[in-house]
Automatic annotation (TrEMBL):
Record bears the keyword Membrane: yes
Residues in Peptidase S55 domain copies: 190-424
EC number: 3.4.21.116
Stored Pfam families: PDZ_2, Peptidase_S55
Organism, scientific name: Calorimonas adulescens
Parts of the chain that traverse the membrane: 12-33
Protein name: SpoIVB peptidase
InterPro entries according to UniProt: PDZ, PDZ_sf, Peptidase_S1_PA, Peptidase_S55, SpoIVB
Encoding gene (name): spoIVB
UniProt keywords, alphabetically: Hydrolase, Membrane, Transmembrane, Transmembrane helix
GO molecular function: hydrolase activity
Classification lineage: Bacteria, Bacillati, Bacillota, Clostridia, Thermoanaerobacterales
Amino acid sequence: MVNLNKQKISQILAVFIIFSLIFIDHVFPLRYINDMPDEIRVMEGSQQSFGFKLPRGIKIDFDTSFIQLESEPLTINTIKEGSSSLEFYLFGLLPLKKVTLDVLPGVYVIPGGEPIGVKFKTRGVMVVGLSEVIGIDDRVYRPGRAADIQTGDVILSIDGHEVNSADDITLWLNKVGKDEATLVVERNDKILEKKVKAIKAKSDKNFRLGLWVKDHTAGIGTLTFVTGDDKMFGALGHPITDSSTGEIMTLSEGEIYKTEITSIEEGRRNKPGEIRGVFKDEATPIGYIEKNTAFGIYGYVNDFTGNKRMIPVAFKSEVRTGPAKILIDLDNNGIKAYDVEIQKTVNQSIPSSKSMIINVTDKELLKKTGGIVQGMSGSPIIQNGKLIGAVTHVFVNDPTKGYGVYIEWMMREIETGKYKTVSG
């Protein structure tokens, strides 16, 4: 009886081990297959590894004229440019996953790292606040609010006259002495017409609309890349926004300038640091801004004297957790590479500026800045000799960490030799 029980236990144990092996060999890799993006873009002649072994019983249909596959680990070797797909089947029958595969020609850019000064003038003026007006009758009025003007609205014209500055509104109201004005405003990509009652203020007898508006901004950021012969640039990795409303500012015109770093305020917990500097030779911009987008500013450089060595651009599917470097000049002595660790990558099918989490590990950089500080936005992130992204944000509660955006999202903002339609 005892021997029989031992035999049954041995049989049960054997079955358990067999099913455990099947589970480990199939279910774990099936999870990785399911987590693969629906679309993969890879460079012609490159290799893309996915870090897991293809389990037995999994069949992949693919076009052998475009790619070759290895199973341990699953690796794509690209042969030529074109579009294809990977279709995964369990036991050759049950469809598991279809991945669209685009094999594209290699893209090379000059990595940046130079600090740049940015001057930015809005198209129209942006409403950044609503205020009260005390009239000559001592009553309190809120004309902007009463006309449904909202913060973030962009005023394009008043009574048919184009608005380019805050003064344009004030001068027109008091030139004609009107107590009502018709404003054309842009809100969420829609054009609206608003009639606003102007109030003669008790303080100076001028007509006012009860609006705070902004028509320009300036600051310091970092150049991310410059393309080859056409000299297009990308910088910042995030949009220029109004500090009061958080709205992306619409572009009328803008320039970038060489900048000299004057000081660095070290970042601390709940108190982000900052790079401070001055524009050099404001009469001669080194480039002109054509676009202000969710993934940075873009334009053309006309005086680029920095690094001329080009490196390949990585697609988001190539970015891995692990060591990387960021490029930046912090002391006017040239660009230097600093060590960081990519702690997490986000599988993004929809572009977002928070594509990866980076952790500063370089002791020298931590000593100089405390981690990531304002002004470092746009600093190129390099991994395995490729440009993979740009620094975008710092963690307020931990300045040693921050976000980066995939360079693929930034590159989609430009086309070879020309720009898409300017934002706004």
